[in-house]
Amino acid sequence: MKKKVEILAPAKNLVQGMAAINAGADAVYIGAPQFGARTNANNSVADIAEMVRYAHLFKAQVFVVINTILYDNELETCEKLIHELYHVGVDALIVQDMAIFEMNLPPIVIHASTQANNRDPKQVDFLQKAGMKRVVLARELNLDQIKEINEACDVELEFFVSGALCVSFSGNCYMSVAGGERSANRGSCAQNCRLPYKLTDGNNDTLIESSHLLSIKDLDLSDQLPQMIEAGVMSFKIEGRLKDVVYVKNNVSYLRKRLDDFLNGDGKENYQKASSGRTFYTFDAEMDRSFNRGYTDYFVNKRMTKIGSWESPKSKGQIIGKVIEIKNGKYLIENAEKLNNGDGLYFINEENEADGVQINTVENGWITPNNYKNIPIGTLISRNSDANFNKQVEKDNSAIRKIGVKLKFEETQYGFSLTATDEDGHVSSEGFKITKELAKKEGFLKDNLEKNLIKTGNTPFIVDDIELELENNWFVPISKINEIRRTVLEKLIDIRIEEYHKEEQAIVKTDHPYPEKTLDFTYNVSNKLARQFYKRHGVEEIEKAFELQWEPGKARVMTTKYCVKYELGKCARFQRATMGEKLKEPLTLTHGENEYKLKFNCKPCEMEIWEKDADLKYDEEFEWEKFN
């Protein structure tokens, strides 16, 4: 049997979720009224129910994120909400908090959020045995690590393929709490990583006065899909529940085409699309034409290039070309024929800061901005707002999804009947009685049937074939042909939704041993049920979640594979031959009153961020000599 491979799209709300399905998504993930890691992307249960009905029409799935940590006073409310979501037909929940496995739940499928520390085979295997049907892997993994997990664990693997990257290990970023008491694990991340920081060394010398030193580029693995499928990934997740509809439709459409190329080519024998229908587009999808900070493959191919987006955390967009000439308040720019009135342009100014202008007019390569700014000749220009593209993609008909049907019109004893069979084998049929009279015009019935049965209008169907079984050239009013077509196709919509197969999985309490006996605050245990879960699985010591015990000043607030030293060209492991003089530690990041120390663990190739009063030891000899 062929393995299904899916594109999983973000849905900020019902409208964007439906747009994602229309653009070709095989599944969407959407926030519930509470307990989602994006508090500005919550949705009512009624909207989720409508989302489910629309998605199921196309055999697409709906996953609801319940991926914050829970407090004791929220457990009962969360359990009630899960029952509501089950009854409206959602396909799965995406969770972080193990308390959910201790609740009295209906037989609903559970996925492990990337917030659950899914970075090694032992953790993933444990979660699979605990009842997780799918695990969303940590973004930091490379292909070899994904393969290792896939070979060791019998569980579906999901991996982010595009969108913004969390610089921290997911679930283990506490900068937002420490910097202002807004918890990322509670859905209120303040995005401290996108702020500008001053960088100083151990001599208190300023290395960088102000730059977005923790801001990294966005992810794009669109050219890695075959390799990732081979490694074991079956779901490709697009980040972006706070992004606009242009971003969602553009990313989904682009990845749909890339994945279909594989499924219809080298992957044809072993893999198949995970949902039904095909999409017709009025635009050419290009990921760099919607929000992006520049792109990186992160670590999927191991540590290869610098990944920082230090100039700005804002969208850089699509590279256009360099400024060639300036005259009379206008710019002559390479490839200006790509630009349109109203576009937004991005560039790095003479102060090495991100800057921009909006185009008023474009004529013969000359750009007249709304507000003139001095841009030196040779400056590279990008377009971060594509006015015409945005208008085109925003239209409802820019991506239309249709399900193939075959129609059979035939005579019955007392009249005629029409049967529709869709691409998945669902059947809808309707007949009508009529007094049979021969038509005066030759070929009347056949011509009118072929002309009118193919008109599917705003229905989700497209007619791929029409079969006629007629004994004579009968007269049948066109209105009757249209009426029976509408009736049959409307019934087929209901039949597809009613016959949709939703997987269910009973929640069974397990007691297999957890890989660790002691859990520190990074395991985010914030309630009695999560504690109960880990105790039953053999954990002996459990520290409270950071949010419940934080004392300002001395905490480790982030662990990351991203490395400031590497970005500076000062990595003793990978840049030893070119790094020059080593840096005096500790390196310190400062933004306003917030100050953080950096600690570099070269053996696992990780960087830690600590609050300013932390008492840290620096093993310089290991770092410097180990990789010499």
Automatic annotation (TrEMBL):
Pfam families: DUF3656, Peptidase_U32
One record GO biological process: proteolysis
PROSITE patterns listed in its UniProt record: PEPTIDASE_U32 (PS01276)
GO MF term set: peptidase activity
Keyword tags: Hydrolase, Protease
Positions of the Peptidase U32 collagenase domain: 382-496
PANTHER family according to UniProt: 23S RRNA 5-HYDROXYCYTIDINE C2501 SYNTHASE, PEPTIDASE U32 FAMILY
Name assigned to this protein: Putative protease
Source organism of the structure: Wenyingzhuangia marina
